[in-house]
Amino acid sequence: MVRVLLSFFVLFTLLSSLLFTLTDAASKPKPKPNKKMVNIVLVHGAIADGSSWSRVIPILQEAGHTVLAVQQPLTSIDDDVAKVK
Q1: Which of 21, 36, 67, 73 is most exposed, with the fewest beta carbons within 10 Å of its own?
Q2: What are phi and psi for residue 25, nearest 5 degrees?
Q3: 3-state helix/strand/coil string of the chain
Q4: Where is the signal peptide (predicted)?
Q5: Residues ≥6 apart with Cβ < 8 Å to 5
Q6: 71-to-40, 50, 52, 55, 85 alpha-carbon distances in Å
């Protein structure tokens, strides 16, 4: 009886591990292959800073893009434009 329970437990553990592995792999979207990847410059608004892009950057990088978030000085529009250039 103990062997049967132990065998059942081992089988259950292996199957649940396999199930969790498959569902985790299926839940992550795969980036579409794109031969022409682009460089992306993210510019924050007047009441934010570069950290506002912290959730967006990893998504774009996983898709194969080069991403830069500019930290603007917010002293004047001319200074902001110069920093982005």
Answers
A1: 36
A2: -65, -35
A3: CHHHHHHHHHHHHHHHHHHHHHHHHHHCCCCCCCCCCCEEEEECCCCCCHHHHCCHHHHHHHCCCEEEEECCCCCCHHHHHHHHC
A4: 1-25
A5: none
A6: 14, 5, 10, 16, 12
The pTM score is 0.49
Cα radius of gyration rounded to whole Å, the chain: 24
Question: Which of 26, 32, 29, 39 shows the shortest CA–CA distance to 68?
Answer: 39
pLDDT digits (tens, 9 = 90+) for 11-58: 556 556 656 665 655 566 666 666 677 889 888 877 777 788 888 999
Structure token pair of residue 34: 């794109």
Assess contact for 65 and 38: CB atoms under 8 A.
Answer: yes
Domain ranges of the chain: 1-30, 33-85
